[in-house]
Amino acid sequence: MTRLSPRAINQVTGLLLALGWGTAVIIYLNAKPVVFDPLIGNPLTSKKYLHELRVMGGKANVAFAEFEAWLASLWQGETRAVTVAVIVVIVALAFRFVAARPDLYAPLAADPPASANRPGPQPPASKTPDADDGV
C-alpha cells in the first residue's frame, strides 16, 4: 500500500474543501426561500394532528415525526448550503484520518496463516528404496 506524503494529504484535503465549499456557496446563492403554505401550515403545530400521531404510534411516533421534519428542513433553501459545507468538512477530516494512518488499515500479509503453526498429523514422508528393505 502506498503511503501519501503529508504534502499530498494537505493538497487533497484542500481540494476537497475548495470544491465542497465552492459548491456550498453556489447552492447558497441560488437558493430560493422556503415557501410556507398558510392553508396547510405545519401539521406538527396542530394539537389534533399530534394527538392522532400519539394514538397511532405513541410518543415515539411523535418524536420520529419531529425528527423527520427537522431532517427535511436541512435540505431546503439556504440551510442546504450549510448542510453541504458541514458534510464536506466531515469528509475531509475522515480522509485525513484514514490517509495519515495507512498501517491501521493495511492487510496483515506479513503474518503466516494460523494453520501453519498448528501442531497436528504430519503428512507421510515419501519412501525411497533402501538396500536394507530386504527385498
Give an overview of the whole structure.
This protein is mainly alpha-helical. Among the domains are: about 15-35 and about 80-105; about 35-75, no CATH class. It contains four helices and no strands. The protein has helices spanning about 5-30, 45-75, 80-100, 100-105. α1 packs antiparallel against α3. The model has no long low-confidence stretch (mean pLDDT about 85).
Largest sheet: none
Runs with pLDDT <50, length 5+?
A: none
Molecular shape: elongated
How are helices and strands ordered from N to C? HHHH
Strand content: under 5%
Number of extended strands: 0
Write the layout of secondary structure elements.
Layout: H1 6-30, H2 47-73, H3 79-100, H4 102-105
